[in-house]
Write a structure and sequence with these properties.
Bound molecules: zinc ion
Mean pLDDT: 80
Distance between the termini: 102 Å
Structural class: alpha+beta
Strand content: 15-25%
Oligomer: single chain
Helix content: 10-25%
Number of helices: 1
Shape: elongated
Number of strands: 5
Largest sheet: 3 strands, antiparallel
Order of helices and strands: EEEEEH
Low-confidence stretches: none
Length: about 110
């Protein structure tokens, strides 16, 4: 019987990419994306290969969203007021109106 392989979710300190690596005794690992050699600092998750890959995807997605948001306002509360809550607006009818002219015929 073979023991199921355990994987860890690690994060590169250089390119900050999350990735799943097979568990091993060595404390050194190499980033799959940028090739940065680094020591094992902390794990973001452990489990089977499939579990870790799913977790990596989620973390990378989450990280992308966070860094996009932090470009604007880092820790400011999000205010959702603005132009939207000034009551009903009639901007929908701002387009050019086609008025039909009836040419008088005598
Ligand atoms: Zn890297």
């Amino acid at each position: 019987m073979m023991a199921p392989q355990r994987f860890r979710v690690l994060r590169c300190c250089s390119c900050r990419l999350f990735q799943a690596h097979q568990e091993k005794k060595s404390l050194k690992w190499t980033c799959k994306a940028c090739g940065e050699k680094q020591s094992f600092l902390r794990t973001y998750g452990e489990g089977s290969s499939a579990d870790c890959r799913r977790h990596v995807q989620k973390l990378n997605l989450l990280q992308g969203q966070i860094s996009e948001m932090s470009l604007g306002s880092l820790e400011e509360p999000v205010n959702v007021d603005g132009e939207e809550d000034t009551g009903p607006q009639q901007a929908d009818h701002a387009g050019p109106q086609v008025s039909q002219r009836l040419s008088p015929c005598h």
